């Protein structure tokens, strides 16, 4: 997932604001107790999301894919007094852990955490969105995008994580492309060709596709 040398990554992290004890605790607990801990946003991406929210000052953020709450807490920290984060996840096995992390963050009043299938839950939301962060099942990235694009305010941003998929999106020759890789290739192509947005693919961590609605 990392596309720069370990030495450069360490240098970047050492010249970025330090994680606080809660984020370090979430990282340790995720690695110790949860499958696929590589799904955690981590220090650089978490700080990027926090600073982006501080710059954009969105009123409503929608996060599709809470996982263990690291990215949600980072984004919630960037919100203004009246801002809120709606974060959706299908994994109820992590709910107790995540709610505890949100409680410890002191940001519960800004976070609306819902368990369920996001494809169904999004239909029940009354809000329009200033920022959407997609980091869930890759096969549904296009479905999520299509569900939210008309509800994103002009100037709002949709960010999709893992769009480089450890470099698999540029597999060539006769190498077999798996379902998730194909889904992400299709997603990147769709966003690139969508006249409703301006976009850039940022090679941060495992790739962030950022699309700003015109």
- The CATH superfamily turns out to be Vaccinia Virus protein VP39
- What fraction of residues sit in β-strands? 15-25%
Distance between the termini: 30 Å
- CATH class wording: Alpha Beta
Order of helices and strands: HHHEHEHEHEHEHEE
- Read across the widest sheet, the strand sequence of neighbours is 3-2-1-4-5-7-6
Radius of gyration: 17 Å
Question: Averaging pLDDT over every residue, what do you get?
Answer: 95
Short description:
The protein has 214 residues and is α/β, with parallel strands linked by helices. 40% of the residues lie in helices and 21% in strands. It has a single domain, classed as Vaccinia Virus protein VP39 (Rossmann fold), CATH 3.40.50.
Task: Report what the structure shows.
This protein has 214 residues and is of the alpha/beta class. It has one domain (6-213): Rossmann fold (3-Layer(aba) Sandwich), CATH 3.40.50.150. The chain is built from eight helices and seven strands. It has helices at 6-14, 21-33, 42-56, 70-78, 95-105, 118-124, 141-148, 179-192; strands spanning 60-64, 84-89, 111-115, 129-134, 152-161, 197-202, 208-213. The chain has a seven-stranded mixed beta sheet, with helices on both faces. Strand 6 (197-202) and strand 7 (208-213) form a beta hairpin. The longest helix has 15 residues, at 42-56. The protein is globular and about 50 Å long. The protein starts with 5 loop residues before the first helix and ends with a strand. The model has no long low-confidence stretch (mean pLDDT 95).
């Amino acid at each position: 997932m990392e596309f720069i040398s370990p030495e450069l990554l360490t240098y970047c992290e050492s010249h970025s604001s330090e994680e606080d004890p809660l984020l370090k605790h979430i990282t340790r607990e995720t690695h110790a107790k949860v499958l696929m801990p590589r799904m955690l946003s981590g220090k650089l991406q978490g700080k990027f999301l926090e600073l982006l929210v501080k710059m954009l000052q969105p009123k409503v953020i929608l996060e599709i894919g809470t996982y263990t709450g690291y990215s949600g807490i980072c984004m919630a920290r960037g919100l203004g007094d009246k801002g809120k984060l709606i974060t959706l996840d299908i994994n109820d096995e992590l709910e107790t852990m995540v709610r505890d992390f949100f409680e410890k963050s002191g940001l519960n009043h800004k976070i609306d955490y819902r368990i369920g299938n996001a494809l169904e839950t999004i239909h029940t939301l009354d809000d329009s969105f200033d920022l959407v962060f997609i980091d869930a099942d890759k096969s549904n990235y296009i479905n999520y995008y299509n569900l939210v694009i008309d509800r994103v305010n002009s100037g709002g941003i949709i960010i999709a994580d893992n769009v480089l998929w450890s470099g698999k999106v540029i597999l060539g020759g006769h190498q077999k492309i798996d379902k998730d890789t194909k889904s992400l290739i299709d997603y990147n192509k769709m966003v690139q060709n969508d006249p409703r947005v301006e976009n850039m693919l940022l090679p941060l961590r495992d790739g962030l596709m950022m699309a700003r609605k015109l």
